[in-house]
Amino acid sequence: MAVIAGVCGVVAVGSIASLVSPTTTLYAPAATAVRPMTQVAAPVPVSRMAAQRQAAYVEAAQAQPVEETIIYQAAAPAQSWAPLAGLLAIPAAVVAFLLNRSNQAKTAAAGVGAAALLSATPALAADVKLGGDSGQLAFVPSSVTISAGESVTWTNNAGFPHNIVFDEDEIPEGVNAAALSHEDYLNAKGDQVSTTFNTPGEYSYYCEPHQGAGMQGKVIVN
User: Fold this and answer.
1) Which residue stretches of 158-217 are H helix?
2) Under a CB-based contact definition with an 8 Å cutoff, are residues 203 and 219 in contact?
3) Fewest Cβ atoms closer than 10 Å to its Cβ: which of 132, 150, 178, 214?
């Protein structure tokens, strides 16, 4: 019993010693393993990375010194247009001169043509109506006076048909009565005939259909 009590005392003393001394280790580790910690960066979007790169490029470019070079360029000599304008004015003046000459020639030709036409056309000196406005059978006026080279025109007015016949015994000697007469009947209102008188004297004529009614006329040529 004394032995058992002694053993128990030893065990009790050991237990109290383990409680009093905290630094006492019952088991010693054979080795210590250390696991390193790796820091992982958060993923960055691609668009944000591109913007960051562009900003960094712009910042680096702005940081570079800028060298300014001034370039002087000689001004082109002023052109004088006066000689060229003078040269251009020469053909313009020539064209204007030629056009003026052409217009003058045309005007002269027109004047000559008009004069020739007037000379070829007998001068109208008198106009006689065949039949009065009230229907009378007469030459109106019954007598006209003209100058040599002028003409008389008869216009059919009323009471037609009419004609103009010169009496060969009542005209100047040597004049052809048939050449002066218009024996064909005028059957429509407004029909006209003309005769030119070149020989001075008195010319008597009549309307053949109405000669019995006293339809007679006279032309006096001075």
Assistant:
1) 177-180
2) yes
3) 178
Nearest to 51 by CA among 62, 59, 43: 59
The DSSP symbol for 28 reads -
Task: Provide the strand spans (E) within the chain.
Answer: 123-130, 139-140, 143-146, 150-156, 162-166, 182-186, 192-197, 201-206, 216-221
User: In the annotation, is 37 catalytic?
Assistant: no
Q: For residue range 3-54, what is the model confidence (pLDDT) as tens digits?
A: 444 434 434 344 444 444 444 444 445 544 455 554 545 555 555 666 677 7
pTM, two decimals, is 0.47
8 is a catalytic site residue: no
Q: Which CATH number fits domain 123-221: 3.40.50.920, 3.40.50.150, 2.60.40.420, 3.55.10.10?
A: 2.60.40.420
The neighbour count for residue 168, using CB atoms within 10 Å, is 13
Q: Is 215 a catalytic residue?
A: yes
The answer on whether 215 is annotated among ligand-binding residues is yes
Does 8 carry a binding-site annotation? Answer: no
Q: Which of 8, 49, 182, 210 is catalytic?
A: 210
CB atoms within 10 A of CB 118: 10
